[in-house]
Amino acid sequence: MKTEYLERANRIATDNVSSAQQVLKDTLGLLYDFSMENCETESFVRELKSLATNLSNAQSQMSALSNICRLVVSAPDKLKPEEMCPYLDALLRRVGDASSKTAEHALRLITDDGLYATLSQSEFVLKSFELAADQGKIATVYVMESRPLFEGRQTARALKKMGHRPILVSDASIGAFITFIDSAFVGADAILSDGTLINKIGSYSLAAACAVSKKKFYAVTSVLKYDSEKSANTFINKEESTHEIFANPELEVRNFYFDKVDGGLVTALITEIGMVSPVSEIGKLNAAMREMYG
After folding, report:
1. What letter would DSSP give residue 41?
2. For the segment 182-231, what is each residue's pLDDT rounded down to a tens digit?
3. What's the pTM value of the predicted model, to 2 decimals?
4. Where are the domains of the chain?
């Protein structure tokens, strides 16, 4: 396999800043380009499956990536090598359409002069506020900075560029601002079979603060994020480099990127099929994913 593809795969495997949706698009783009150049070689199927499997394992917390890579791994058993590129192109277009369709549903919950909260970096959330700005709905958004990699700063810059009024706050201070907001919008890295939401660390704090203050907490996401094989009890949170928090050999430091948010704290999941309750309607995600992606 060419060094070019290995280098791109390594960048995707170690990308801890981009949104889950962007990582998914980058993965499909890589698999498409690889297929375009190598579909006529003897090693094509083996290398394609290996590439997809390794990327899925490297970003194991991202259910959409796992689901797509599972489809790609099984596709060569049903399709001819020359059919893989059109198949991957169709997947990429469908994935690209998901954020726009989801944003149209989320748009109904965003009002002009509204006050909201978010964290980390979600393409689905940003697309929702982009549509709102296009319609003249200008909002104030409290953005948690999302340590240790500070993706929230990128989100704040993107919101300001759209014309919104982002206010960057520390993760720990969200409780001090929760009474100011109308509702919170976050993305999702995974939705587990019991309705548990997996998202960037700080999501639980924001959801709990919303619950106490009787504010609505929405996850703007895709049915492709549904993971039928994991629940809150079986989800394993991967530890990351402690140096991202504090490089001091005298102290014990732990670093997790992801939070588990009980479905009962989530007002609704906003997806390309509309609003879904993570408590009573979770089966809709599985059915929709099978219908849309096979």
Report:
1. S
2. 999 999 999 999 999 999 999 999 999 999 999 999 999 999 999 998 99
3. 0.91
4. 3-98, 100-293
